[in-house]
Design goal:
By secondary structure, the chain is α/β, with parallel strands linked by helices. It folds into four domains: 146 residues, P-loop containing nucleotide triphosphate hydrolases (Rossmann fold, 3-Layer(aba) Sandwich); 61 residues, Helicase, Ruva Protein, domain 3, CATH 1.10.8.60; 115 residues, Zinc Finger, Delta Prime, domain 3 (Up-down Bundle), CATH 1.20.272; 98 residues, no CATH class. Helix content is 62%, strand content 7%. α5 links the parallel β3 and β4. The longest helix has 27 residues. The structure holds zinc ion. The site of zinc ion has 9 residues, from α3. The site of zinc ion (ZN) has 9 residues, from α3.
Length: 445
């Protein structure tokens, strides 16, 4: 748009799309200022001349702003049509800035299209929208399109710092991050929080004061929560949660915070790159450390439960109880689950041991080392183990009378105990595997 201003190649209609608060109408105003400015420098308006000041104050006779969210009907567009017929009063151009243009009615769009089809030379439309897909293609095709993106957190931070410096306000880095983050990609929102922060903290914004004023749970809380979950500590997570709840934290914010926390852990655990997080350096380091306490599998399971609870949570009439149940569920989630490959290798090594003790040739063991490539294979293997286990059990009395006597003679009693322990452990693991696959065992007499 700056190039258009410098080169003088001005289109008659522009479409600025993008999320709320990224500066669509601000850009539209700057554009209008630049094209009417008495003292334009390198495509930038001076912000000082009469025309610039009038646009800043919203009283320039040639710049019209229309909010389509509240003026969406045919009459409103007809008024624009009428106004468009007259030459600009002061400058070379007449501007219509239409915000949330997707809200116009079909009739209004048709009327607008008529103007856009044959616009007088002095007329410039700047359409802004958060939902460009709702605008008829006939309109879009007549506009120069500029899709705007969410503003990155470090860009918002830089702006917040800049403003703080200009206004002589002391602010610590953690506060800058918190404010920028609350902006959620929108500079306008972040600056709104900054204003609030200034009115509360004065000229010295300190993180601890700011977060208690905004009543936002401290990030450390989420590390405590993931600590309880990691240790399967249902009792203390519930006590901890009740304390927090009494402090009056908004439960929805808290829920989103937990989800984001585990998302961040998953990112670091999967990529080993904490710099991908929108966090201050000290918290990046914390995420790096904490992520090593979870496997990616565990984090995915936790996130799955959180996402499944999300809708239920939003519409629940008793969020507190739901929250407690959810936290308890997260605590038990990892306690009962063992990594499958770990179990299988344990079973295999135990089997080898017990087969050697039963004088079975190593070749047969190798054949039984199936790799669990599919669920079917795992089930097959699991069945194999079950059968083998049954056999071993039924063979035990025979063995005691038969060939294993020789083994018993050779072995010390300590070693015999050892093999009994091994059998107990193996039975436990098999039991676990059966539970895992929900296997029902049929016994015939
Ligand atoms: Zn100016």
């Amino acid at each position: 748009m700056k190039n258009a201003i410098i080169s003088g190649k001005i289109a008659h209609s522009y479409l600025l799309s993008g999320p709320r608060g990224v500066g669509k109408t601000t850009i539209a105003r700057i554009f209008a200022k630049a094209l009417n400015c008495a003292d334009l420098k390198n495509g930038e308006p001076c912000n000082k001349c009469n025309s610039c000041e009038e646009i800043t104050n919203g009283i320039h006779p040639d710049v019209f702003e229309l909010d389509a969210a509240s003026n969406r009907g045919i009459d409103d567009v007809r008024a624009v049509q009428d106004a468009a017929k007259f030459f600009p009063i002061k400058g070379k151009f007449k501007f219509f800035i239409v915000d949330e243009v997707h809200m116009l009615t079909q009739q209004a769009f048709n009327a607008l299209l008529k103007i856009l089809e044959e616009p007088p030379g002095y007329l410039i439309f700047i359409l802004a929208t958060t939902n460009p897909e709702k605008i008829p293609a006939t309109i879009v095709s007549r506009c120069q399109r500029f899709p705007l993106q969410r503003i990155k957190i470090n860009e918002i931070s830089a702006k917040v710092k800049e403003i703080a410096k200009e206004e002589n306000i002391k602010i610590d880095n953690e506060s800058v991050f918190l404010i920028s983050k609350l902006g959620d990609g929108a500079l306008r929102d972040a600056l709104g929080v900054f204003d609030m922060a200034v009115s509360f903290c004065g000229n010295n914004i300190i993180y601890s004061e700011l977060k208690s004023f905004l009543n936002i749970p401290d990030k450390d809380i989420y590390f405590d929560i993931s600590g309880f979950i990691r240790n399967s500590d249902v009792k203390n997570i519930l006590i901890y949660f009740n304390d927090l709840e009494e402090k009056g934290f908004d439960l929805q914010t808290f829920f989103n915070g937990i989800t984001e926390h585990f998302r961040d852990l998953l990112i670091v655990s999967s990529t080993s790159n904490p710099n991908l997080l929108d966090e201050s350096d000290s918290f990046r380091e914390k995420y790096n450390t904490e992520s090593k306490n979870f496997t990616a599998d565990q984090l995915q399971r936790i996130l799955k439960v959180l996402f499944e609870a999300e809708n239920r949570f939003r519409y629940s009439s008793n969020q507190k109880i739901l929250f407690e149940a959810l936290l308890a569920e997260l605590c038990t989630l990892n306690r009962d689950v063992k990594d499958l490959s770990e179990l299988i290798s344990e079973v295999t090594s135990l089997k080898k041991k017990s087969l050697i003790q039963n004088n079975i040739k190593p070749a047969e063991i190798v054949n039984q080392n199936l790799t669990p490539e599919s669920e079917a294979a795992v089930t097959k293997k699991e069945k194999g183990i079950t059968e083998k286990n049954d056999l071993t059990e039924s063979e035990i009395p025979e063995s005691k009378n038969g060939k294993s006597e020789t083994i018993n003679v050779k072995k010390e009693s300590g070693e015999k105990e050892n093999s009994d322990n091994t059998n107990v452990k193996e039975t436990l693991i098999i039991q676990k595997l059966k539970e895992l696959f929900d296997v029902v065992e049929y016994k015939t007499d």
